[in-house]
Amino acid sequence: MPKADRWSSDEEEIVLLSLLPKPISHLDEGTYGVVWKARDNATQEIVAIKQIKFDSDMTKEGFPISALREIGVLLSLSHESIVSVREMVVGSTPDKVFMVMDCFEMDLQAAMKKGPGASTPFAQSEVKYMMRQILSAMAHVTSIARKYEHPARNMTQMVVTLWYRAPELLFSESCYGPEIDTWSIGCIFGELLIKEAILKGTGELDQIQKIFKLLGTPTDDEYWEQLWSKQGSTFKWKNNDSDLARTFAVNSFSATGQSYLSPDGFDLLSRLLSLNPKKRITAEDALRHSYFSCGVTEQVPMFYV
Amino acid sequence: MKQGLEPRWDVRNLPPHFQTQLKVHLDYMFRQPHINTDMRAILMDWLVELAEEYKLTSETLFLSGMLVDRSLAISYGVEGFRGGEMMVQKDQLQCVGCACTMIAAKLLEITPPGADEFVYISDNSYKRKDILEMEANIVNSLGFNLNFVTPYHHVHRFLAASQASSPCSLSADRAAMRWVNTMPSMYDGKPCHVLAGLVHVGLCICE
């Protein structure tokens, strides 16, 4: 276990050596802790260091569950498109725990909003490149998670950021699997095309309405009829037809600031955003979709090089 | 392959480095002057009771057993924040068991028992602070590598293949846990062979 002083001259605090000026060094504040940018004194590499947030948990219940699980999962994953945890570092007291990770200048959201070429839509080839990265990473996670996970463990509903939350979760489906993640990928696909989140609900109810408005209300759908009758739902949802084809028009050039979308691309999008989780395409199958094998070849996005 | 066996449990599908993790070498006891294999066996036996008491899954139980061995094998404190070599004292062994079960439960259970439950079940032998310190120690000394394939993956596979009834499977896998961990010689030979034998014996007794 390396000591923190490999990155720091001062054992007490993780004020990192060769810190870049503060506004730059303080990258972001995530859900679990503060992220710093630092240079590894041994290899001169730039890394990101995330300090795990300990709240009052540390004195009451010990190491926070969420951090423990996140670290465990990240350490067991190894994929070119997944950020790798290089090592774990402890400070002078047990509540100072840091994850040393690969450093990236920006996340996808920043790339869309601030990166070079932010004002123009992504090229079709760039979208394809990013979608393949995301899908192959997800396929890897799914294959690993299958070895650890237990279906009965999925009990909480408060998962996934609202805008990317699958419709069945909004209806309190308690038994879910990797389908909820492919829904989120579908949302990201749409977002890459129009450079804006596609389902920006203000609350759970509004989120459901936005989903049904975009994709149509599921009528005559076995899965949804079962789910609603199981819950004895009394809500009547307004019947909408799918708006997807109009929102993501195929072959339309960027008069509306939207990326070009091939018919194959639209097909993949609608399969990812399938309201019925049983019919939703899996990450593995999505990678075999003709969207990736036909049409323009992939290209590394501009902000990446 | 019989029905009822989910591919995710098939050990043969795991990457090779996961498979080698299964084997525990008990020679680490030589580096722990204050404890011996008998004490370890008693601790493992107690962990089974702890799991019964709090209705922990067999997965959690096997993982906590695994974590006990892993953390005893590393004389922690060598490079840790406490400084200096630290051996596990006889009266700390149960605390190691508590902390390992706590970690395993946090990783695998939906509602893991709280720290106070461990204080209670160890008959107030340790304060909450002791257990939490031990937890931090163990997590750090293992470098946060906490996801292990445990013998349970094998046991589950054999039980599924045997198509035994579920109460029978449960007692058989608890029995396997006791045997695996109370008889160090069980670790000679290939883990999967030993476990296949144990599951067979377990099922014979149950039926």
From TrEMBL, chain A:
One Gene Ontology MF term: protein serine/threonine kinase activity
A cellular component annotation (GO) from this entry: nucleus
The entry's keywords: ATP-binding, Kinase, Nucleotide-binding, Serine/threonine-protein kinase, Transferase
Pfam families: Pkinase
InterPro entries attached to this UniProt entry: CDK (IPR050108), Kinase-like_dom_sf (IPR011009), Prot_kinase_dom (IPR000719)
Boundaries of every Protein kinase domain copy: 21-292
GO biological process: regulation of macromolecule biosynthetic process; regulation of mitotic cell cycle; regulation of primary metabolic process
UniProt keyword Transcription present: no
Family to which the UniProt record says this protein belongs: Belongs to the protein kinase superfamily. CMGC Ser/Thr protein kinase family. CDC2/CDKX subfamily.
Subunit field text: May form a complex composed of at least the catalytic subunit CRK2 and a cyclin.
Protein name, entry field: Cyclin-dependent kinase 2 homolog
Species this chain originates from: Skeletonema marinoi
UniProtKB/TrEMBL annotation, chain B:
Alphabetized Pfam families for the sequence: Cyclin_N
Keyword Cell division in record: yes
Domain Cyclin-like as annotated: residue spans: 45-140
A biological process term (GO) from this entry: cell division
Keyword flag Cytoplasm: no
Alphabetized UniProt keyword annotations: Cell cycle, Cell division, Cyclin
Similarity-based family: Belongs to the cyclin family.
PANTHER family documented for this protein: CYCLINS
Protein name: Cyclin family protein
